[in-house]
Structures are given as C-alpha cells and as structure tokens.
C-alpha cells in the first residue's frame, strides 16, 4: 500500500470542499485551519496553475493521547487533507498517519490510536468525493 491515500472526484473542487466541511465534523473531527495555497502563492508573486487547498483536521482527544505517548509527534500533527486539481481532475488525499507516525516513534500502543484515526480520515475523504 502507498504512503498516500488519494481519491479522484467528478465533482468540482468547490463541491468537494463543501462536502469535506460537512464530513469532518460528522466524523468527530474538527477543521483547525485551511489554506488556499494557490491564493497564498499568488499573493507572493508566484502563480500556481492548479488549485490546492489544505485542511488541518484534528480529533482533540486522540491528539492529546498521541502527544502524551510521544511529544515529538507534535511535528506531524494535526493531520492534513488536501483538495486539489491535477490535469483538470479534482483529487482529495492525505499522507497516511500509520505510515509516517510509526516511522517517527516507537512509543507503545501508538497503532491502537492511529489506526482508527486513519480509517476515519479515509472515511471523510470517501464521503467528500461523491
């Protein structure tokens, strides 16, 4: 399995973003911040052809539990879901937490915390693309 989970959507980027904004709280997560990368880069004089939005999402209880096991994991929290276009196709994806967090920490019982988070994030993406 890849370290990324990416799904294509026949919906517009704005439609996917609206569905994502509904799916996140419906799955007990919250959106902490969102970034319009294309707009940010344009404001700094760099034009990006494709659309790119990044959403930082978090389940506060799980984040607390993970940080209590290994505070160094603050470097990869919160989780990020990206909504972007590539060659005219709308895509939604994330770097799978089970892949990078377990490479960064050997704290006990992390997988029991991360696996359900990853499954929920995948569910959020799946709900956003249809």
UniProtKB/TrEMBL annotation:
This is DUF302 domain-containing protein. CDD domains: DUF302. Residues 36-94 form the DUF302 domain. It comes from hydrothermal vent metagenome. InterPro entries: DUF302, TT1751-like_sf, UCP021774.
């Amino acid at each position: 399995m890849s370290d990324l989970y990416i799904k294509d959507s026949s919906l517009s980027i704005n439609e996917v973003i609206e569905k994502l904004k509904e799916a996140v709280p419906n799955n007990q997560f919250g959106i902490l911040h969102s970034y319009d990368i294309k707009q940010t880069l344009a404001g700094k004089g760099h034009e990006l052809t494709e659309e790119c939005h990044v959403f930082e999402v978090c389940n506060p209880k799980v984040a607390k539990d993970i940080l209590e096991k290994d505070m160094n994991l603050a470097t990869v929290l919160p989780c990020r879901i990206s909504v972007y276009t590539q060659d005219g196709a709308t895509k939604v994806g994330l770097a799978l937490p089970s892949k990078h967090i377990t490479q960064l920490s050997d704290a006990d019982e992390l997988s029991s915390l991360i696996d359900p988070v990853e499954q929920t994030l995948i569910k959020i993406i799946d709900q956003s693309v249809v």
